[in-house]
Write a structure and sequence with these properties.
single chain, alpha/beta, N-(1-d-carboxylethyl)-l-norvaline Dehydrogenase, domain 2, 8-stranded mixed sheet, 10 strands
Amino acid sequence: MPKKIAVLGAGSWGTSLAVLLGDKSFQVFLWARKRHSAQAIMETRENSRYLPGVKIPREIEVTDSLKEALSNAEMVILSVPSHAVREVIRMSGPFLGGKAIIVNTAKGLEMDSLYTISRVLSEELPKALKNRIAVLSGPSHAEEVSRKLPTTVVVASAERSLAEYVQDVFITPFFRVYTNPDVTGVELGGALKNVIALATGIADGLGLGDNAKAALMTRGIAEITRLGVKMGANPLTFAGLSGIGDLIVTCTSVYSRNWRAGKELGKGKCLEEVLAGMGMVVEGVRTTKAVWRLASEKGIEMPICQQVYRVLFENETPQQGVSNLMQRSRTHEVEEVVLNWENWK
């Protein structure tokens, strides 16, 4: 087991994971990018902005110094927004040990390159660490994990022994961890479900009912699977925790930033107004733009994601987006699923 763990990113999820690991008696350093944030957390032992009401044990060190956080750290947990990963890992490079394990928890795609986060890490990490990357994903709101409510997630790595090592580090009686070798599928499931959550939020904001939400979630996972298979993922991954599991919780929970943002859009607010009122990163907005580009480049039909893109970036009304989806030409449900499976095999 690692003697020291660095958690980079003091948002709600990074803070929650730091507390979880601190409770397991690991030496944990929580890195906050801004000095005043680190000082406030140290003084109050609470992250009042992102995770109010959760006490942070004094055994957890809080710092704004990457050198202090990373020196001799045997495991590094990346819990920063996806668009900040490349910059943060570059800044971290000089302080990373040659045998550190890097665990990414960011759920998104890099906007410019359209890369998954693990691919970004592979480009930026020293050669010795390129095979020491794992991804932690699944249905897991920080607010519930911090209250020790039963939660189940998945860790993915190309190296089974590394995935099982990370599994052992994180697992607790209330935080169950599975492993999966499909890194691409796990990452795409975690990223793309945010786009579908925006769609279900819009539907709720319009007052369209449960039938519409169920349809969006079901057809949404079909879209995610189509793109995932095209990018080399195992279609069965999307039936698991990082696929349908994460999709369900993100599309139905009041804790979901993407669902909340979508609901405000459905009520008639513009995107700029919604984002200004959130106070946190809404990953699905950037991911929608990335997915729209990926689907176009790869010739993948993703009508829900396309309509979300038009609402966000082309001034289409939510009502028109719904109408466009409902009046698409008729098609078959099962044939495309079978085709996806046959192509993957």
